[in-house]
Design a protein that fits this description.
about 775 residues, 25 helices, ATP-binding
Length: about 775
């Protein structure tokens, strides 16, 4: 049997023959297992050839094909089977643990209609109130998903048939209500779904008090800074669309924060959150958190989680958490509608050919193919009969337009990649350009707010919604947040992680919100920064120092003070016994500037010099004194912070002339001091535990900016611009209280005369937040 005959017998699209490598593999597998008995098994054999090679070793493909051909493995089991084989890719076929493979793949697992019906009934019972309220307007995708998750390896088509039948049995015939506009979704007090981390500890969607308070301030000022048309002023081509929209929303402002879960959210996303959540809140409206998850290759569950936690941490409260993938079925139906109305066609140009034709403004050879032909091919794409890169669904827009975003954009492409949320239910995925505007319309968004680089897409956004005859939101673009010494490109941030420049997405040097959180940034500081930056349509470069300023303002009131020495110089107190034992331990203030009588004013920790030996910072002693130097020098006095005045009486130096230790004496009668010595400057210190035991040590990490150039985008090679000194690991000598501080997650401390630090449970270290005062010492 020749190649064409095999391809035809298996039901593959004739264009499969254009892919020589795929065709050869199909022929090889067909030679081993023959032609499967059912069309579904034939489709699965095609998937073994087209999809499995990305996950399964070549030697295992015939083994897998055998299970597929006799239908011991069907579509619901395919992903599990390939996953198991991928883990065992180096195991010869003869040595595979067949029993383990069959168990992991669900071979032999089956369900009766009664079992599926019972699971469906349980799901419907859990959603009975919503079903009665929404009736046939209710999206059944989540019902289907909940049921199938309770029945591992079940055939989704069987579940859907039984689910549809049960819903019809429950609701009865369709009514006028079911054919009218859907009812408005109830607002549940602003609490989002899922979990997120609050300030110090975990909390549900609500976030934390500090973040919520700062977010509320942003909301108040946002309404003053930007003015948009009211929802009722958003004119539509068909007045009925606006009427239906207003009936659904009650005339409220509805916005959305729509990140793609292809990385951790960064400081730029904080600006988008502030605008979208802030504007909705200021106008008494609602805001969705929506994952724009249409690219399964780049998206991971941990990215969804990181986004959800960041939103909650910053104090924002979505009315609901949704996903573009929730609407895959509806978007697919819209795609078929566009084909039938002559607004879309299946194209076989490859990526390079599409780019060239759009540049030259020449039509695709397949642009005018019959709608019926495009519809059949598009359905074949969904069935997995057409390989990746062999076809796309394109919108029939205007190839002569001066706007490149109007030159027949891609609406759908084939991707044989399991979706992190939708699983392996789909092998065709909508593009961002197709999905974004449609889901905005489906969620009744009143104001679609995007950054300036999406400005060219406004025309295509409106074109698509008009072609579908559905509601069109207001679109407005604003400038991205660009900060000196920082990159916010997801591509570059991912490269920093994958190429080992940093230790992960939450590295404290990263501008991700989780990185900033480990660096000690607070929700209040970030929201204040977003508020100060404001919302404009002018691209500018905000100085990093402004972000640090916002942090200092917040930490100045909440960080407990501690004396910590980072560059130790040994000091021997020769006459420590001149002070009574009880006075050799002093009470150091946690909040020295607190008002008298407040709880903070009473907060202290013990600091002792009873061992007769302490550490001071090496910079606090010089052999040669100067007029503007306020530290120790031979014969000079200083005050030990919270303790006595001491005078330097001797010092030791090594062969290189470096001071190795200093001997001081306590000034027992301070009334004898004269001149400038009457009010000596205070220096911080840490006492030894005993004459032979130094103070406790903790890991301390100091940070500089990650990039040397202010405008990283202008650097010839951004990788070469990475600051190799962006992290310095130190040892901090600390009083015992700091060991207890380390046990408290995200506790902020001020190292006196040094800077602000935060406890980092992940690394069991103290991370530098920023210096006490703004300096130019960014490196």
């Amino acid at each position: 049997m020749d190649a064409k005959a095999v391809i035809t017998e298996l039901g593959c699209h004739p264009d499969t023959l254009n892919n020589t490598k795929l065709t050869q593999l199909i022929l090889e597998l067909h030679a081993v297992v023959g032609t499967p008995a059912t069309p579904s098994a034939c489709n699965m054999l095609y998937e073994v050839a087209a999809v499995a090679p990305k996950h399964v070793a070549d030697i295992h493909l015939p083994f897998l094909a055998g299970y597929v051909a006799d239908e011991r493995i069907r579509k619901p089991q395919f992903a599990a089977a390939t996953k198991w084989l991928k883990k065992n890719k180096n195991v010869p076929v003869a040595e595979l643990d067949v029993a383990a493979f069959e168990k992991a793949s669900g071979v032999g697992v089956s369900y009766t209609d009664e079992q599926i019906g019972a699971a469906v009934a349980k799901t419907l019972e859990a959603h009975a109130e919503e079903l009665q309220r929404m009736r046939y307007h209710m999206k059944t995708g989540k019902l289907l998903g909940q049921t199938t998750r309770s029945l591992p390896f079940v055939d989704g088509a069987r579940v859907k048939n039984i689910l549809d039948a049960k819903i019809a049995e429950t609701l009865g015939p369709r009514t006028a209500f079911d054919d009218g506009p859907p009812p408005a979704a109830p607002v549940k007090g602003g609490k989002g779904k899922g979990k997120g981390k609050g300030g110090k500890g975990k909390g549900k969607g609500k976030g934390n008090e500090a973040g919520a308070s700062a977010a509320a301030e942003v909301a108040e000022t946002t309404a003053e800074k930007i003015v948009f048309s009211a929802p009722e002023e958003n004119e539509q081509d068909d007045p009925k669309l606006l009427a239906e929209h207003l009936a659904t929303t009650g005339g409220k402002v509805v916005t959305r924060f729509p990140p793609e879960p292809n990385g951790f959210p960064h400081i730029g996303h904080a600006k988008s959150m502030g605008l979208n959540f802030g504007y909705a809140k200021a106008k008494g409206g609602i805001c969705y958190l929506r994952y724009d998850d249409t690219n399964p290759e780049a998206e991971k569950p941990e990215y969804y989680k990181a986004i959800r936690e960041a939103v909650a941490w910053l104090g924002h409260e979505p009315v609901a958490v949704t996903k573009a993938s929730d609407y895959f079925e509806q978007m697919y139906a819209y795609a078929e509608q566009l084909i039938l109305s002559g607004h879309a066609y299946v194209c076989h140009q490859n990526k390079a050919e599409i780019v060239e034709s759009r540049q030259k403004r020449t039509n695709s050879p397949w642009r005018d193919r019959p709608a019926a032909e495009s519809l059949k091919l598009f359905r074949d794409m969904r069935k997995g009969k057409i390989g990746e890169g062999e076809a796309t669904l394109r919108l029939k827009m205007d190839m002569q337009s001066d706007n490149p975003c109007m030159r027949d954009l891609i609406a759908y492409r084939v991707k044989f990649h399991e979706h992190p949320m939708a699983g392996d239910a789909w092998c065709v995925y909508p593009s961002y350009d197709f999905e974004h505007c449609i889901v905005d319309a489906l969620e009744n968004i009143t104001h679609s707010l995007c950054t300036l680089e999406f400005g060219l897409r406004r025309e295509s956004y409106h074109w698509l919604l008009k072609a579908l005859g559905i509601y069109r939101p207001v679109v407005w673009e604003y400038s991205r947040l660009n900060i000196t010494h920082v990159v916010v490109s997801k591509r570059k941030l991912r490269a920093l992680v994958e190429d080992g420049f940093v230790d992960g997405w939450d590295d404290p040097r990263m501008p991700t919100l989780s990185g900033l959180r480990r660096r000690g940034y607070t929700p209040a500081a970030i929201n204040k920064f977003v508020d100060l930056v404001g919302v404009t349509r002018t691209e500018n470069l905000v100085r990093y120092e402004l972000l640090e300023h916002c942090l200092r303002e917040d930490l100045g009131n909440i960080a407990e003070r501690r004396m910590v020495v980072l560059d130790p110089l040994e000091v021997i107190i020769a006459n420590v016994d001149a002070v009574a034992p009880a006075a050799q331990t002093v009470a150091a203030a946690s909040f020295p500037n607190a008002a008298e009588g407040t709880p903070e004013a009473a907060m202290t920790y013990p600091a002792s010099f009873a061992a007769g030996k302490i550490y001071i910072e090496a910079r606090d002693f010089r052999l040669n004194d100067s007029k503007k130097y306020f530290g120790l020098a031979p014969g000079k006095v200083v005050r030990l912070r919270y303790g006595p005045v001491v005078r330097a009486v001797a010092n030791d130096v090594d062969a290189a002339g470096n001071v190795t230790s200093v001997t001081v004496e306590i000034v027992t009668d301070e009334s004898t001091l004269t001149g400038k010595s009457k009010k000596p400057k205070a220096i911080h210190w840490v006492g030894w535990v005993s004459p032979t035991t130094p103070p406790a040590q903790v890991a301390v990490r100091n940070y500089g900016v990650l990039f040397k150039s202010e405008n990283v985008a202008a650097a010839p090679d951004w990788r070469a611009d990475v600051n190799e000194n962006s992290r310095v690991d130190l040892v901090g000598y600390v009083p015992p209280v700091v060991l207890n501080d380390l046990k408290v997650p995200e506790k902020h401390l001020q190292f006196e005369r040094v800077g602000y630090y935060v406890t980092d449970v992940k690394s069991n270290a103290l991370n530098q937040c920023c210096e006490l005062k703004a300096t130019n010492a960014l490196f």
